TrEMBL record:
Name of the protein: DUF4595 domain-containing protein
Taxonomy, superkingdom: Bacteria
Length: 290
């Protein structure tokens, strides 16, 4: 994922998780002080996540035409780089997502994805184009779901690097759940054997734990799951975004000797159980009513 991978993991968690929320439509929602609902939640108006701001500065922004996501802009950690993911469709299903950075020399990530009838990605290919050939790659992904077809349990990536025609590297991500929420993503990275199988003896493990979920609405669930699945393949700290609820802690344990990092999160909610801010109301979500 690049030479500054660990730095981007930590930075991405900080900016991806400490989020708050305004409403840009005529419907204004009063944030609750604690859990955002009393069990008698009214039906919310149809809405999508439009922006995420930090001190009124846009960190993420999503462009939707009607109910169709066209593109999403995401800040890449604490850097000044912003990635814009442009989405294309075939027969109303997402077919391609291309992430391009705003800074010269940024690696671009061009995904081709295949969705099932539930909007789950079941296969994908990514072409990563870097300023140096040695950092460029082509990756193929295989996705495994549980028997219900609802929960993603494994992703296996095989990668060709530096213009080579043979796979040489792998990443295997295994998920465990707490209810319907991703509790842990164990990410093993290593080399392939001569027969193309993952050589676990070479693997180094990074563990992402998304802990202590609330029972409220994940704002990213208002947008296509495939978009955040692809982005999480670039930045794995974001896999919590495809869960239905919101973690209140993210714990990242990189390969030794790097230290583990724990990031707590807090939320305020509106009357419809959508997060509107962290407790300090510095980071905000902006929704658009459809």
């Amino acid at each position: 994922m690049g030479k500054n991978y660990l730095f981007k993991i930590v930075a991405g968690i900080f900016f991806g998780l400490m989020v708050s929320c305004n409403n840009s439509s005529d419907d204004q929602f009063e944030p609750s002080a604690n859990d955002g609902g009393n069990g008698n939640t009214p039906t919310p108006p149809a809405r999508v996540l439009e922006k995420i701001t930090v001190n009124n500065s846009v960190q993420e922004e999503y462009t939707v035409n009607g109910t169709v996501l066209q593109k999403g802009m995401l800040k890449d950690g604490t850097t000044n780089n912003y990635y814009t993911g442009t989405v294309t469709y075939i027969n109303n299903k997402i077919n391609k997502i291309k992430f391009i950075g705003s800074l010269a020399g940024s690696t671009s990530y061009d995904f081709s994805v295949s969705e099932d009838s539930k909007g789950n990605v079941y296969s994908a290919t990514c072409t990563g184009t870097a300023s140096a050939l040695i950092d460029s790659f082509v990756s193929d992904y295989a996705f495994t779901y549980d028997a219900t077809g609802k929960k993603l349990v494994k992703i296996l990536e095989k990668r060709k690097v530096s213009g080579n025609t043979a796979y040489s590297l792998f990443t295997e991500i295994t998920f465990t759940y707490n209810g319907d929420n991703i509790f842990k993503a164990e990410c093993a990275k290593g080399t392939l054997t001569g027969t193309g199988a993952p050589n676990m003896a070479t693997a180094k493990m990074t563990v992402y734990s998304y802990q202590n979920y609330d029972s409220k609405v994940n704002p990213f669930s208002t947008l296509p799951k495939s978009f955040f699945t692809a982005w999480s393949l670039v930045r794995p700290e974001n896999f919590y975004r495809i869960s239905p609820n919101n973690p209140t802690s993210v714990y990242v344990m990189p390969p030794s000797p790097a230290p583990a990092v724990n990031t707590p999160m807090t939320y305020l909610y509106d009357g419809y159980n959508y997060p509107v801010s962290d407790k300090d109301q510095i980071l905000k979500y902006v929704y658009r009513t459809l």
